[in-house]
Automatic annotation (TrEMBL):
Coiled coil: none annotated. Keywords: Signal. Belongs to the AIM6 family. GO terms for biological process: lipid metabolic process. The keyword Signal applies. Residues 1-22 form the signal peptide. This is Altered inheritance of mitochondria protein 6. One of its GO terms (molecular function) is phosphoric diester hydrolase activity.
Amino acid sequence: MASLIISIVSITLLFFFKASTGSEVLATNHYNYNLNEKVTLDDQYSIDNLEKLFYTNKGITHDVFVKKIHSHNDYWRNTPLLDAISLGVQSVEADVWYFPENNDETVYVGHSMKSLKKGVTLDSLYINPLNAILKGSNNKQDDSADIIIKDHNGINGVFDTDHETTLYLFIDLKTDGNQLFDKIHSKFQNFCNNKWLSYYNQTSDEFKWGPITIIGTGNTPLDKVKNQGEIRYIFFDGPLNKLKEVSEDEINHKVSPIVSSSLRMLVQQLEITDLLNDDQVKNIKELVEIAHKGNMKTRIWDTPWWPVNLEKGIWRQIINDIKSDYLNVDDLVEGVEFKW
Ligand SMILES: *[C@@H]1O[C@H](CO)[C@@H](O)[C@H](O)[C@H]1NC(C)=O
């Protein structure tokens, strides 16, 4: 319980915004807070500085190691992307909304329609900061000495300690999937041109990892994912629970480098009030093995979060027994600090 409270307090501290003069503070690095001290913020994580900081040893991902964690329910954080990557979390998710019928070309980010706000957008929360970070990690400046070495197909990723690690960006399409898909596709064209995205070349039949791997979920139409022309750079969140039923032609790592399911779908139960039994573990493990054989990573979401011993017990089963890849967490600090 004490650690839960500390987690809640610390994650709250991650949220401080500087609303006053100068550039907006996007996030505070988790190393910068101390529960015993009054938190003071400087503007070092302003968008202007995200790029510049990469040339120093103070970049937002400096000194943090990458963890196979998916930051679920990102929408309730003020700076979801930056909070996550500053903790080394490798996978993030944005719920996106689009209303072209109102002559509005903005792609909003939020959990529900009523939570949408002007200015809280895919650009402001994800595209602009990622653009700054990747510019920083891929440009050498005189004073950067030799710390930035281009080593991942010549392109560096967002994690300073491991440039070859991709960041999964799940984009959950909430409004019309066809319209939103086209919009998102065009928004990331530049990233693709810069070789900042994982992609599949349909002509050469090659999949290449890049700094960011975009995974469409929610209303993402599978046929649009499959028909992006020669280069596919938006992928499909494949159904882990159906891997025994769908054909390899339908779902494979060139379409779905990662597949997911809710735990409730996997066990076909409305509520999970107990640890998984041996049969359940075995069944899910078989699905995960099919995914791994096909070169696909796995994520199981919607796990119980209360009581805490059930939450943690299920995490252990999912990662240690079932051998699923990504731990899905709502509370980042709790996930990052969890002792296996
Ligand atoms: C895709 O593969 C084809 C065939 O090898 C090649 O000619 C083309 O340049 C590749 N496209 C990209 C963007 O890598």
